[in-house]
Amino acid sequence: MGGGEQTTDAAGGDKRAAVIFNPVKQGIEHLRTAVEAVEREHGFGPTLWIETTEDDPGTGQAREAREAGVDLVVAAGGDGTVRAVAEGLEGAKTPVGLVPLGTGNLFARNLGIPVNDIPGAVRLAFAGRDRAVDVLRARVRRPDGTTETEVSLVMSGIGLDAAMIANTDPDLKKRVGWLAYVDAGLRAIPNSEPFRVAHRMDDGRTHRSRVSSILIANLGYLPGNIELIPDAEVDDGRLDVVRLQPRNFWGWMLVWRKVVWENRVLRRSALGRQLIDLTGGNKRREVVYSSGGTVDVVIDGEPQEFEIDGEEMGEITAARFAIDPKALVIRVGSGGGTAGGPAAARGDEEPISDEPPSDEGLEAELDEAELEAAEAAAEEAAATQPVTGELSTAEIAAAEAGAAGTGTGTDRTDR
User: Count of CB atoms within 10 A of residue 315's CB?
Assistant: First the structure.
């Protein structure tokens, strides 16, 4: 539960809000002032203030607010606080207002929430419109064989992306914010080692790849307005997978070109898309996209670093990700934002149902047996399928058997 609980001195109203806040973030007093200025105006009584703690960054506090029957939950902090609050409100339709106080604030940025304007974000939390968005859930296998279920709102990363998060200088992060991740990335790339993964979408065919990083995303924009996944939408009922598989330094330059130039500039016009086609941009394999309802990722080799929404989460050996469609209600502005781009309007949104979505199918998708099935499929694929540019185990065995039958030896060079 929270480390502290208080109410404001505002006069009573028909509704009540709860603010779940990280007490170590700057701007808390400014936040209190802003809440007191708008709660009575919008018919809210005394606000319930609940602190997060080091042991519980918001999940228990969200459940506490839910049990108190509040009409609005305001999550004040970074992406980690919002993610924890979302986990605590699983299955509820209580709207969540966002007041960004963290470093990246990717979820808020993608939804068009004011990032450096506490009064503006508070007004939006109390008076904005409701928008139901998807939530990513992951069942992960740890190196010791145990499993955990985690929640993600932005994106999860395995490999270089997670190593970058783990290597970010905390002091630099306090001084320059998300730019510290750029510093960590520049330091991590030269020492990064590609690794092999088996992956499959929607329980289909298992594929093997050699990657530097694999990202499973709910939305598409990174800090600096970098468009990593052009087609990602926060409410389309699909997760998006990005495999980064450059072979060398030049490959990393092509990754950067793809994300910064092609996605952000060229794809926005017919002429630009034609230029991409003419220069072979759609045929290159440094950045590969796919999407679906579920994805399994099984690591072939040593465990890899794992991160969720910019938070270091240790090492894993396998994971099954599933989308939970429109499982969280967020207060947004009139434009609404979109996971495909900050504050871009959408006119085709459906009204939010009063009935919470059924989670029976999702529970099946995250069942332990499903993760075990994915691992079994990965083992079978490792024995029969080659990784791009490499010989398969079966081909090697056949070659060795042929060599033994003729009494000659062979040297193998990976193609």
Answer: 17
Enter the pTM of the model: 0.77
Crossing angle (nearest 10°) for helices 368-384 and 393-406: 40
Number of Cβ within a 10 Å radius of residue 223: 17
Measured torsion, CA atoms of residues 348, 351, 352, 353, in degrees rounded to the nearest 10: -130
pLDDT digits (tens, 9 = 90+) for 155-169: 899 988 777 666 665
Choice among 22-26, 82-86, 221-225 with the minimum mean pLDDT = 221-225
Q: Are 255 and 244 in contact (CB under 8 A)?
A: yes
Q: How far is CA 317 from the centre of its chain?
A: 18
Copy the structure tokens of residue 206. 């298992």
What residues contact residue 85 under an 8 Å CB cut-off, 6+ apart? Answer: 20, 58, 59, 61, 62, 73, 75, 96
Q: CA angle 357-363-367, nearest 5°?
A: 170
The model's pLDDT over 307-341, given as tens digits with 9 standing for 90+, comes to 998 888 999 999 999 999 999 999 998 765 544 44
